[in-house]
Model the fold of this input.
Amino acid sequence: MGDAKFVAGDWGTSNLRLFLCDAQGVALDVVNGPGAAEAKGRFADIFDSLTAGWEARHGALPAVLCGMVGSSIGWIQAPYVACPARPEQIVDACVSLQEGAVVVPGLSCHNRFNAPDFLRGEETQLLGALSLVAELRHERRVICLPGTHTKWVVVENGWVREFFTAPTGELFALLRDHSVLIRGGGVAGTTRMDAFESGLAHFNEFPQAQLLHRLFESRSRQLSGELSADEASAYLSGLLVASDVHGAVNALCDSARTVFLVGTTQLMQLYARACAFSGYDTCLVDGVAASLNGLLHVHRQLSQQARI
Done:
C-alpha cells in the first residue's frame, strides 16, 4: 500500500463515495456523503468537508469525480461524448472543476431502436472494465451494467459503439410498491431465489409472449395460492430480468455467447442466472473495482497531460 496520490469519487443521485487512493488506485480510505439530489448547491462545501482530514494529512490532492456530479443537477455540467467513442475521447472531454479536480463526462448515442440514449457514471465503469479485462479490448463484446436503469453496451476493439437502457430496477420497484400486483408489498425480490428462478423459467417457457401479458401472473399466482407476497415479488423480478436479458441478447449478441456483467454481486448473480437460462455464459466484473480502475485510468492520463 503506497502513499495517497489522488481522490476518486463516484457522486450519484442518491449517494456519494470518495476514495483516497494510492498511485495504483488502491483505496486507502473511504468516506460517504449525500448524493447530487440532496447536495443542491452545496457540492463544494460537502467535498471540502469530507476531504479536509485527508488534505490535512497529505496536502492538496487532485480529484477525479464521475456520476451525476457532472449532470444538470450536479456541481458542473460535463457534456456527453457521442458514440462511437474511444477511451481517449472520454478522458479528453473531462471538465475542470476547480484546481486539480475534474469531472468525467457521460456518453450519448442514437441506438439501434432509432432513439437517443444517455449514460452518466457507467462510462467510468466501462473504462475500468476495459482496463481489467483484456478480452474486452478485442473484437466485439456485449457488456451489461445491471441497476435501476440497466445499460446494455456494445464495445468493439476498445471503442464504445452503442448502448441502450432498460429501466428494469425502477419498473420492478414501481410495480412492487405502487401497484396491486404484489399483495402486501412483498420484499426486495431477491430473497427467494426459487421463486425468482421460477419467474425466469416461466418467461423462457413462452419467450414469444409480450411482457405485459405476463406481469399479472405475480398477482394471479397469489390468488391461486401458488405464491406468497414475498415469493410473488421474487417471481416478478424474475419475469422482468428474464425479459430484459432475452430482449438484449437477441438484439446485440449475434454469434457471441458471453455477456460481461459489471455491477454489484447481488445484481450480477441475478443477471447471470437469467443469461444462463437463455443459454449465455457470463464474466463478472465487480462494479466498485471497475469504477476505481476507470477513475485511476483518467487520473493517469490527465496527469501525463499535466491537467491535474
In short: The chain has a mean pLDDT of 94. The radius of gyration is 21 Å. The first strand starts at residue 4 and ends at 11.
